[in-house]
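I would like you to sit down with the record closing this message with an eye to the fold:
=====
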Amino acid sequence: MRIDPDAVVWSAPERERAGRPLLVLLHGYGSHEGDLFGLAPGLPLSPVIASLRAPLRSGPGYAWFPLSGETPLDEVGEIVDDSARAILEWLDSTESTSVGVLGFSQGGAMALQLLRLAPARFRYAVVLAGFVAGIAHPGDAALLTAKPPVFWGRGTIDDRIPRPAIEWTAQWLPSHSTLTSRIYEDLGHGISNAELKDVNTFISGAL
């Protein structure tokens, strides 16, 4: 697993990135690095934004790990970690004053997996229409103490994420993070303007 550095979409040229915080964007299943980059105008100006492409081919786009049912559960867990380690390896090639991560759907699961693997590496995580992947992970114990800031936003009519995954995430996040949770009426599997404003406020306060 590796992140293609040539596929990363940046909000600033390399000469303008030094001495600034970094915000990493992780797209959803079957999407691409250009998708979430459209959120950039609604996000705080101070962080440099880097939108990554997931390492696995999935139809017309890319994925961080196979959908449930395509691969045995124990193997999916290994792939989630492999993708998260690929992101961490890519981060080793960057320089910033701090790192935050924002993921949508499957990308949100990756954001939480990154916290499981390297909680001290990230200032905060934003999870939009996402979930925590898997019931248990060796990194969960450290999160019980670290409790990094996490924003979790979801819609009341989002039918893409299985209900058991949402219920487990709602149980897991309060004890493994300093949680800001928002539920948006009549929002499906997407991101609303109201949610983006709340994300802006959250990130600004976490920097």
In short: The longest strand covers residues 149-155. The radius of gyration is 16 Å. The helical segments are 73-91, 106-117, 140-146, 163-176, 193-206. Residues 73-91 form the longest helix (19 residues).
